[in-house]
UniProtKB/TrEMBL annotation:
GO terms for biological process: protein ubiquitination. The lineage of its organism: Eukaryota, Viridiplantae, Streptophyta, Embryophyta, Tracheophyta. This is Sulfite exporter TauE/SafE family protein 4. InterPro entries: TM_pro_TauE-like. Belongs to the 4-toluene sulfonate uptake permease (TSUP) (TC 2.A.102) family.
């Protein structure tokens, strides 16, 4: 599936779903005729006690595997955590989304800690691409705030349909990408084996030593040196400033009346903050790309194999907002779009995974702080599942990196990413369909809701 065909699929399928929701919101389908307003937006909290039971054991296993695989693929795992917390543990939807953010934050933080002590697979550059992180993080965080607002307006069935459309598309695209990489790796391994055979005669005697010491020995960095090398303090400081700015705006906005003038002023202030940082990084990449092209240097900027033209930068901004919006609707970190997008633009799988989890650490932690101030999740349960995710994120990275080193196949990361997204599509589909059927039986309103009256 080409990129243009993939985008056409997303646009056409999403348009059909939204037009269906608009039809159900028409006067002939208004709540006063045959429907009643849904109580799915109720603020009633359902917080089960943290006690040893089969539900807790199953949730622990699913949480561990979901966090391990999700962070390896760079997608977080919110599409698995939210259904698990609602169906198995019994949390309400809003509390499940909040705890899901805690789990994503824990898993992504431990993955970042692990990746900071890992060298780049091919170059002497940081494994976390801070340029790409600075390009996508502001748009992702802006999209999350937009997605949270849309979750109040959009009907539940429409959110489910849009998420399934996106997840099926991205998982399929990632799977085909993984197959292409697997074939390329197979060819490279065969060529390497042939080259090795040429140094052995018919009697199996080694004719020449193929292991040469380089004229300039490669410098081996310690774990501390790698950590300092992988962490770019200037760019990380900018990311922290964006994080703090969004946090302050969100906290202040939650203390003012919904739809009041001050509410919309604070909501609008998020846009210049996000676009200012994005514009700063986009201009830097554009100028560097222009200079390289004028000099005839075809070396890639960042890890991406695309040219940083105005069209490509605008496309990345749109994808960042879409990824964040999906994260806000679903309760994930936005990695379900960011992970596949980094692979699509030609980023090495190891770097794509490390960069996506680095960005998710900021976006998910912002939501966790906000949910904590709003008392949206029980502390004991959140601490327990976050601890499970921290361990899972670290060991998931460890085992997959070992497998890649042994098998020499980085495509494993792509297959893990595709599998997690596909599993999330199935779990979200099951939850969404069952809840939609219940709403239909109860004659609940299935169209768009008013934002101000639904808060």
């Amino acid at each position: 599936m080409a990129t243009s065909g993939f985008l056409l699929y997303l646009l056409s399928a999403s348009s059909i779903a939204i037009l269906s929701a608009l039809y159900l919101s028409s006067p002939s389908s208004s709540p006063s005729s045959s429907f009643v307003l849904s109580d799915s937006l109720s603020t009633d909290k359902i917080w089960p006690d943290l006690e040893l039971s089969w539900r807790l054991v199953v949730a622990t296993v699913i949480g561990f595997l979901g966090s391990a695989c999700g962070t390896v693929g760079g997608v977080g795992g919110g599409g698995i955590f939210v259904p698990m917390l609602t169906l198995i543990i019994g949390f309400d939807t809003k509390s499940a989304a909040a705890i899901s953010k805690c789990m994503i934050m824990g898993a992504s933080s431990s993955s970042v800690w692990y990746n900071l002590r890992v060298a780049h697979p091919t170059k002497d550059v940081p494994i976390i691409d801070h340029d790409l992180a600075l390009l996508f993080q502001p748009m992702l965080m802006l999209g999350i705030t937009v997605g949270v607002s849309l979750s109040v307006v959009f009907p539940y069935w429409l959110i489910t349909v849009l998420i399934i459309i996106l997840f099926i598309g991205t998982s399929s695209r990632s799977f085909f990408k993984g197959i292409e990489m697997w074939k390329e790796e197979t060819i490279l391994k065969k060529e390497f084996a042939k080259q090795s055979e040429t140094f052995v005669n018919s009697r199996g005697e080694l004719l020449i030593d193929v292991e040469y010491d380089p004229l300039i020995p490669k410098e081996q960095k310690t774990a501390l040196e790698l950590m300092c090398f992988n962490l770019r303090w200037k760019r990380t400081s900018i990311l922290l400033v964006v994080w703090i700015s969004f946090l302050i705006l969100q906290v202040v906005k939650n203390d003012v009346a919904v739809c009041s003038p001050w509410y919309w002023i604070l909501f609008s202030l998020q846009f210049p903050v996000a676009f200012a940082v994005f514009g700063y990084e986009a201009r830097k990449l554009y100028n560097e790309h222009k200079k390289r092209m004028e000099a005839g240097n075809l070396e890639h900027i960042c890890e991406a194999s695309i040219g940083w033209t105005g069209t490509h930068l605008a496309f990345c901004a749109l994808c960042g907002i879409v990824g964040g919006t999906v994260g806000g609707l679903l309760g994930s970190g936005g990695g379900f779009v960011l992970g596949p997008l980094l692979l699509e633009i030609g980023v090495v799988p190891q770097v794509a995974s490390a960069t996506a989890t680095f960005v998710m650490m900021f976006s998910s932690s912002l939501s966790v702080v906000e949910f904590y101030l709003l008392h949206r999740f029980p502390i004991p349960f959140a601490l327990y599942l976050t601890s499970v995710s921290v361990l899972a994120g670290f060991w998931g990275q460890f085992f997959v990196r070992k497998m890649i080193a042994i098998l020499r196949r980085a495509s494993l990361i792509v297959f893990v990413l595709s599998g997690v997204i596909f599993a999330s599509a199935i779990t979200m589909g099951i939850v969404g369909v069952s809840k939609s059927i219940t709403m239909i039986h109860n004659h609940e309103f299935m169209g768009f809701l008013d934002f101000c009256s639904s808060q």
